[in-house]
Design goal:
InterPro entries (chain A): MetI-like (IPR000515), MetI-like_sf (IPR035906)
Number of helices of chain A: 12
Helix content of chain A: over 70%
Number of strands of chain B: 19
Subcellular location (chain A): Cell inner membrane; Cell membrane
Distance between the termini of chain B: 33 Å
Chains: A mainly alpha (about 260), B alpha+beta (about 350), C mainly alpha (about 270)
Largest sheet of chain A: none
Protein name (chain A): ABC transporter permease
Order of helices and strands of chain B: EEEHEEEHHHEHEHEEHHEEEEEEEEE
Oligomer: heterotrimer
Membrane topology (chain A): Multi-pass membrane protein
Helix content of chain B: 10-25%
Radius of gyration of chain A: 22 Å
Main location (chain A): membrane
Order of helices and strands of chain A: HHHHHHHHHHHH
Largest interface: A-C, 88 and 84 residues
Strand content of chain B: 35-45%
């Protein structure tokens, strides 16, 4: 295969992968009342209109809060696991890591349904705590994997050095390990945040009237309305993700952890 | 230097996951002494050192430091310094903060930290490098930071785990002199773990040769070098030609034997010759020269004989014996080290 | 002190308890429920699902679409990954970043783009009617093709990334070596590149296949009720029909299909000794 031919193929692949976003952005900038491409006149009105819709605002706040909270809890649970896997002989190691990574194998929709039927309804649990539990469970494996990757590059003898200089185990961890895996933890946070924010199947059964995450709200809305607001919102979300990814890649080299 | 034991290991048994690595070890070290633990990898020297530091809980036995039983004292309360083979510098901290780490843990006042860190950094000749990160330093400089970091807290005992093994030959020689100077200046008791006999001989007041978790021989460098107590020690300190003595014969590992050149004391179990102690060009035995290596001052010969390969060394000024030629050689008991057991 | 088992256990315990209570136990109960009948236990629910024409149709459609998407992703993935690996290392990073970027964007947004393109008044139909290829706008949406395209765009990056890292680890010069020995491009691919990158292909293939089998958004938006897949059917059974028995069966089928795909493909990844 000649390199010119390869370049052409690559351009087509990128057109397929990224082109649709350009179309959404253009469709969102339509001045017309219904969704169309090419847009009927140019205007940013739908971008502003998105912010006027109360259900979008509320679900956006919920999604952000959920993503931050679930990612933080997943890290609180996952960092010790990654650390233990790197430093200690674990009882039943294989089974343990299968258990801890099982949330990635199980189709997310099942998790939502199972939690709804056997936790939310019997315990009369609120929707938000249920979403929080489901999203956290899903993110723990990511947290463990990404933090493990950055721990793998860290020698364990610096902790011993810290202990011999008078630090206790906890101080040794916080003073010597944590600062050195900070980038990994940040990368895990970003991946977790994005995963939770974009998550649909888990939340599907765990949302209800008045309480919904943004992607679910968008799915609802697009079923009943055919105006450019979803295009505008999608464009905004895409731009937000791009900004996060670019910043993260610039400072952390995010792609090493994906 | 007082005569009472400062560090005392009594019946120390160590192991990982129940697999024994060191068995019933007894060792006493005096205050201000520099002791080298010498042995091949897997002999238990590093394990012993880690137990002294508190990084490994003994399966049995007692560790006493300065008259106090520290067997159950956690590592962070022992005040024992350790210089790691990998240096184990904190990668995110500057030279200053690396050295200040232990002082900060002791809640030393700020101005005293400044003063003592400056002193320690100056002592290892790194003044001006305080703001650098470890990765911005050469191997030798990192080694010096590790040393400064370990001694700045004035530990009661300094352990060094193969500290020079990651340096090149020239730096190693330089650091060796440096370490010796530091030890004299600070009067600190040191336990030095190494597999390099030359390093141990040059540095230590006393050498402890270990093998398979047991002490093989203990004594001043001269004693270890000249009168090895076992055939293992002999081989380890450079006696290349070691033979068992039985019924007036030299026995090789392959079962072959040669008659002794001269009678020996009845209590002798082994005879060991360094290469230069082998007579070359004369003597009762014969062998074929397999190869020669020119060492500058001398030439080393590898000779195939009925008792296996013999390593001999002769001054370079003497006429050479070409490879492939048959040559006469002698193993006079007078030039050998006699090992009684 | 650094080998204490109890410390290790204490560190993993919170996560283990959380995952077990908040995830594993409910999921296992749900899966077990699929065997629950009105009078005792058995595989009756499964038989009912498979005897139901719709259930069977949706199951096979899901498998078929997932397989086709995986196959297409593999073919396009090799071409794209090869082209990326051929570029200079500093450009390679940018290209890999551009492949990863879509993965970070909301799948709802990504799928919605196809609505804009394939809809009645969408980009493609405007193009087709303006060019006079058809009088009437074509029905492109709510077809298997639409779902296929949506899924492919969603999961292709995973395949490309897996293959890029596999191709990067290809021993240097094996391809020129094969060609100097007279192998053409097809022979080189099947005899050299494919066997040496099998693991990457299998990793990517597993991600794409299981991702497609368990996709919800794409079939929901681009397939609607005309082109149901397992997850959209499951959602319908619960939210419309309140039929938990068949929902739990679908859940179990999804689970088994993903696990089986994982297993099967992993077996393909480990080369057999000859």
């Amino acid at each position: 295969m000649s390199s010119r031919m390869g370049g052409l193929m690559l351009a087509l692949v990128f057109l397929f992968l990224i082109g649709p976003f350009l179309i959404i952005i253009a469709a969102g900038m339509s001045a017309g009342e219904t969704l169309a491409f090419p847009p009927q006149g140019l205007s940013l009105r739908w971008f502003w209109a998105v912010f006027e819709v109360e259900s979008f605002r509320a679900s956006f706040v919920l999604s952000i809060g959920l993503a931050v909270g679930a990612t933080l809890l997943a890290l609180v649970l996952g960092v010790p696991v990654a650390y233990a896997l790197a430093r200690y002989p674990l009882p039943g190691g294989e089974a343990m890591s299968t258990l801890l990574t099982s949330p990635v194998i199980v189709p997310a929709i099942i998790v939502g349904l199972a939690l709804l039927r056997y936790v939310v309804i019997p315990l009369d649990l609120g929707i938000i705590p249920a979403l929080f539990v489901a999203h956290t469970a899903l993110l723990v494996p990511y947290a463990v994997r990404v933090v493990s990757a950055s721990l793998a590059n860290l020698r364990s003898d610096i902790e011993e050095a810290a202990v011999l200089l008078g630090a206790n185990r906890l101080q040794a961890f916080f003073l010597t390990v944590l600062p050195n895996i900070r980038n990994g933890i940040l990368a895990a946070f970003i991946l977790g945040f994005v995963t939770s924010f974009n998550q649909v199947p888990v939340s599907l059964f765990l949302t209800g009237p008045g309480v919904s995450t943004l992607p679910i709200q968008m799915l609802w809305y697009m079923e009943f309305t055919y105006d450019p607001s979803i295009a505008a919102l999608s464009a905004l979300l895409a731009l937000m993700s791009m900004a996060i990814v670019l910043v993260a890649e610039r400072f952390l080299g995010l792609s090493r952890y994906v | 230097m007082s005569d009472a034991a400062f560090l005392d290991l009594a019946g120390l048994s160590l192991g990982y996951d129940g697999r024994p690595a060191v068995e019933a070890l007894d060792l006493s070290i005096k205050e201000g002494e520099l002791v080298a633990l010498l042995g091949p990898s897997g002999c238990g020297k590093t394990t012993t050192m880690r137990a002294v530091a508190g990084l490994l809980q003994p399966m049995g036995g007692r560790i006493t430091l300065g008259g106090r039983d520290i067997t159950r004292v956690p590592a962070n309360r022992r005040n024992i310094g350790l210089v790691f083979q990998s240096y184990a510098l904190f990668p995110h901290l500057s030279v200053f903060e690396n050295v200040a780490f232990g002082l900060r843990r002791q809640r030393t006042p700020k101005d005293e930290i400044e003063r003592r860190v400056a002193e320690a950094v100056a002592m290892v000749g790194l003044t001006g490098f305080e703001k650098r990160l470890p990765k911005e330093l050469s191997g030798g400089q990192q080694q010096r930071v590790a040393l400064a970091r370990a001694v700045v807290v004035r530990p009661r005992l300094l352990l060094l785990d193969e500290p020079l093994s990651n340096l090149d030959a020239r730096l190693r020689l330089e650091m060796r002199t440096e370490l010796r100077r530091l030890q004299r200046e600070l009067g600190i008791t040191m336990v030095y773990v190494t597999h390099d006999q030359e390093e141990a001989l040059a540095l230590a007041d006393r050498i402890v040769v270990m093998r398979d978790g047991k002490i093989e021989q203990m004594g001043p460098p001269e004693a270890i070098y000249e009168t090895p107590a076992t055939d293992f020690v002999a081989r380890f300190v450079g006696f290349e030609n070691v033979f068992q003595v039985k019924d007036g014969q030299l026995r090789a590992g392959n079962g072959a034997a040669l008659p002794l050149q001269a009678p020996v004391d009845g209590g002798t179990a082994w005879l060991a010759w360094r290469p230069h102690a082998v007579e070359l060009g004369q003597g009762p035995y014969e062998g074929q020269v397999l190869g020669t290596s020119y060492l500058g001052q001398s030439v080393e010969y590898l000779i195939e004989s009925t008792v296996g390969p013999i390593k001999a060394e002769a001054p370079a000024a003497l006429p050479r014996h070409e490879a492939g030629r048959t040559v006469a050689f002698g193993l006079p008991p007078a030039t050998a080290a006699a090992i009684p057991r | 002190m650094f080998t204490s088992r109890t410390t290790g256990l204490m560190l993993v315990l919170p996560a283990v308890v959380f995952i077990t209570v908040g995830f594993l136990a409910p999921v296992l109960i749900l899966l077990a429920q699929s065997l629950r009948l009105e009078d005792g236990w058995g595989i009756g629910n499964y038989l009912a699902f498979m005897n139901d024409g719709l259930g069977r149709e949706v199951f096979w459609r899901t498998i078929k679409l997932a397989a086709l998407v995986t196959l297409a992703a593999a073919v396009i993935g090799y071409v794209a990954a090869w082209a990326i690996v051929e570029t200079r290392p500093e450009r390679r990073g940018v290209l890999v970043g551009m492949v990863i970027l879509p993965l970070m964007i909301s799948p709802v947004a990504r799928t919605y783009a196809w609505l804009v393109i394939l809809g009645r008044t969408g980009f493609l139909n405007v193009l087709i009617t303006n060019l006079g290829l058809s009088e009437e706008p074509l029905r492109l949406l709510f077809t298997e093709t639409a779902v296929f395209i949506g899924l492919l765009q969603l999961f292709l990056p995973l395949m490309i990334i897996s293959l890029v890292s596999a191709l990067e680890n290809l021993p240097r010069d094996v391809v020129p070596a094969a060609q100097t020995l007279g192998a053409g491009w097809i022979a080189t691919f099947f005899k050299v590149i494919l066997p040496l990158t099998r693991e990457g292909l299998v990793i990517g293939g597993t991600l794409v296949f299981t991702g497609s089998v368990t996709a919800y958004i794409t079939p929901a938006v681009l397939g609607g009720s005309k082109v149901l897949m397992l997850e959209t059917l499951l959602y319908q059974r619960v939210s419309v029909a309140n039929d938990f028995a068949s929902a739990s069966v679908i859940a179990a089928i999804l689970m088994v299909t993903t696990l089986a795909a994982n297993r099967l493909l992993r077996r393909l990844a480990t080369p057999r000794r000859r």
